[in-house]
Amino acid sequence: MGRGDKAERDVAFAAFVEQATPSLMRTAWLLTGSTEAARELVQASLVKTYAAWHRVRADEALAYTRRVLVNHNTDTWRRRRGEHLVADAPERPHHDSQRADHRDEVARLLATLPAQQRRVVVLRYYSDLSEQATAEVLGISVGAVKSAASRGLASLRTAYPRPSTELSSPATEGSIR
User: Fold this and answer.
1) Domain 3-81 belongs to what topology?
2) What is the mean pLDDT of residues 71-94?
3) Global confidence as pTM
4) What is the pLDDT of residue 161?
C-alpha cells in the first residue's frame, strides 16, 4: 500500500465521519439513553470501522458502522448488565420545544423496553431501516425483527399517554400509536 492510497482512504474516512456522526449519535443515544455513553459508543464504532475501512464499500459504510455500533452496544450491555437513564439528549436539528419534549418522552419510553425490542424499534422506526436491513444489522431473522417490533410497539402504545393534540414527525408518524 502506498502513501497515496492511505492518504486517500483517510480523506474518504474523514468525510464519512463528518457526514455520518450526527445520525450515529442520535441512534447511539436512543440505544444508551446517555450522551456520554453515546459518544463513547460512536467513537468505538468509528475506530472499528476505520480499522476495516479498506474493506468497507462506500455505499455500505453507514450500514456497516451502524451494525458495528449496535454490536458494540450489545457487547457493552452484556458486560455491565444494566442501563442508566440520563436526561440530556444530543443536539437536534429542530428546536421546537414541544417536539423536543415529545422526543424526550419517546426516548424515555424506549428506555423501558428490553434491549432487543429497543434496538429493533430504533432501527426500524427511527433510523427508518427495512425489516430485512434491521435483521442484517442485528444478525437476527426477519421474523425476529417483526416479533420484537410488534411487542415493542405494543408496550409503547400501552405506556404512551396520547395527548389531545398529537404531534406528528417523520420519525414517529404511524409508528408509535
Assistant:
1) Rna Polymerase Sigma Factor; Chain: A (1.10.1740)
2) 63
3) 0.56
4) 62
Local confidence band at 166 (pLDDT 50, 70, 90 cut-offs): very low
The CA–CA distances, whole Å, from 114 to 5, 60, 107 equal 44, 28, 13
Cβ proximity of 31 and 75 under 8 Å: no
In the chain, where the domains are located: 3-81, 102-166
Range 99-106 average pLDDT:
68
Strand locations in 34-116 (E) = none
Cell numbers representing residue 42 in the block: 460512536
Tell me the backbone φ, ψ of residue 119, rounded to 5 degrees.
Answer: -60, -45
Cα–Cα dist 64/62, whole Å = 5
CATH topology of domain 102-166: Arc Repressor Mutant, subunit A (1.10.10)
Give the Cα separation of 104 and 107 in Å (integer).
5
Residue 16 to residue 176: CA distance in whole angstroms: 31
3-81 against 102-166: fold identical: no
Phi, psi (degrees; rounded to nearest 5) at 62 = -65, -45
Q: Which range among 8-22, 120-134, 155-169 shows the weakest confidence by mean pLDDT? A: 155-169
